[in-house]
Amino acid sequence: MQLGSRVRVIGIASGKGGVGKTTIAVNLATALAESGKTVMLLDGDLGLANAQLAFGCQVKYNFSHVLAGVKTLEEIIITTSSGVQLVPGASGLQELASLTSLQAGIMLQGFESLAAKLDYLIIDIAAGISDSVITFLQACDYRFIICKDDPSSYADAYATVKVLNKNAASDNLYLLTNEVSDEAHALRLHSSFNNVTNRFLEFSIGMIGHVVKDESVPLAWKKAQPVVQLYPSSAAASNFRQLAKNVDALIKPTVNLTAHT
Fold first, then answer.
1. What is the CATH number of the domain that holds 41?
2. Considering the entire predicted model, what is its pTM?
3. Which span out of 12-21, 95-104, 192-201 was modeled with the highest average pLDDT?
4. Inter-helix orientation angle 21-34/235-248, to 10°
């Protein structure tokens, strides 16, 4: 199944939790929507979903109701105040946190009917390297790995990249550095990471952008709004808008959503 020539599917992942993956997914989606794009965000972290909190949305139904056959995909979609269409995940459900690759593939097939209406489908993918995480990432046109400048984040991001490389999913793979001090810091971190992938995996990883450490980000979380929307003049909001421009400059490759399921 093809998702079509228009929509671009972006997977946002990290080797570990707590590196700002959902913050980046929510604000990238918001920045793209601000620029006039039609954007859907799938909260693919189905065991610990929290994208709805970042948007300040009240969620009655989520993807667990779709999997149970109680609701259709279209019936659970929420349009946020920023114009992003949100597909809520579920929180605290162990069976969703451990989807098999087959289940994840079937889940993704449900988006075929919506694809013609979208410019971007962004998937906020669970942390780690489970089968369902790899399946989600294999299905994406582009794969963004979030990394902070600390040893555990660095090591876990590399582990994710290594597994993707092993599963023939290292093309269109980019590093996105978060909570850096400035662009020079981001470039150093990317250079260091890229040296490792070149040496041990024999391929180069691109750099799609960076986000600086900014007190506006946790403040926006507390107020349940994207920082792009709540603090549009902040340094982080500027980074997210630049990230959206970088993303929009990418050329959509051909991807078969079920090639690996």
1. 3.40.50.300
2. 0.90
3. 192-201
4. 70
